[in-house]
């Protein structure tokens, strides 16, 4: 089992935003960021900046009180390094420098006041850290500003900052939605970052947009309660935004319990901005990202070699090290399924192979659970896992592959229907095939290293053979043959065991 990280290896980000002040502590500065503590206070620092040019006095007091607690928490948690950033409200308000001086005295760290372009870049890096090869426009909607930036795979293009954050827009429009509509229209028309977004993906970053995603997930009965990677077609998002605005006009937003009271008034403005973005950019899909400025800040601090690693594989490696009986066995399982795929000429894309390897790394993480519940519990752990660089469809695929490894393929032990419906029939069949392969591999090896490398596959016509080296022949049993024949049938072959 992996040894615990050294004391003081954790890192924290204090994020002083226009709406909220937040502390997030991560287990370590690594490619796969694992939050171990997350707390925010909705202070509303930027709620009057557009009209008065000042941070509101009561908001300043509330923020400074929260920062005292954050500093104390970092001491209690023995955080190794603390980074602090401030965004639109602090850079735009005339009393921002005075507030920052007091905040730095409390936090005992230098606070970086992000410029608009810098904030846009960090938002984009956050999406790059949490989305596998993103291609589209990143929009980060905060309380004070909206950042828009073009991202193509791991390349960050130029960005723009607009005064369209929820609090700023509410203040500019004097709480008039009609006036806000006109302001947003004028600001967004002809923004080059949006005109480059046609038929691509729009990545929605920021707490208020996440709140919109949460409401849609609940109202639609969607099976995964995971905001990161949740996606809607542009048409669905447009329809939902308009429905939300109608609810606001009828004073019905107060009935939405899944959103904090302080954020609820901003939902309408967030929906309005999203509507106009869809109108101008004409994206194909809206994807919500919980990875943003904070994650981008830490991603930037990694070495180039670390940044170029696959975030999903890194996260799976972490879980494999922490929860599997043998981390080495999982890597032998990757090689074993590589050989199987090669022998049977399994058609795989690069993404298919990536997900198969991920599933191999996670195939033994449920061994401590009671045998009757390993399938469902491991499925839940995978699909709800706090990691990025994976879509919801991919979560379902990996989760179901591991579910079938534990629960088997019989009709009596089927996963939830709504989870199966996240996959196409072909994807579901591939998950069943991979689960069947895991059932063979774990049965013959008992999840111990050194066994799988001594077994080989041979194909002869429509026949698939699993060959055991002489020293392992005592591992062969009727149950092994039965499971291997089941695997072979899923591939369209007749299976048999060969003792060398």
Automatic annotation (TrEMBL):
Keywords: Hydrolase. InterPro entries: ATPase_NBD (IPR043129), Exopolyphosphatase (IPR022371), GppA/Ppx_hydrolase (IPR050273), Ppx_C (IPR048951), Ppx_GppA_N (IPR003695). GO terms for biological process: phosphorus metabolic process. GO terms for molecular function: exopolyphosphatase activity. It comes from the Bacteria. Its EC number is 3.6.1.11. Residues 24-303 form the Ppx/GppA phosphatase N-terminal domain. Residues 312-497 form the Exopolyphosphatase C-terminal domain. It catalyses: [phosphate](n) + H2O = [phosphate](n-1) + phosphate + H(+). Belongs to the GppA/Ppx family. This is exopolyphosphatase. It comes from Bradyrhizobium nanningense.
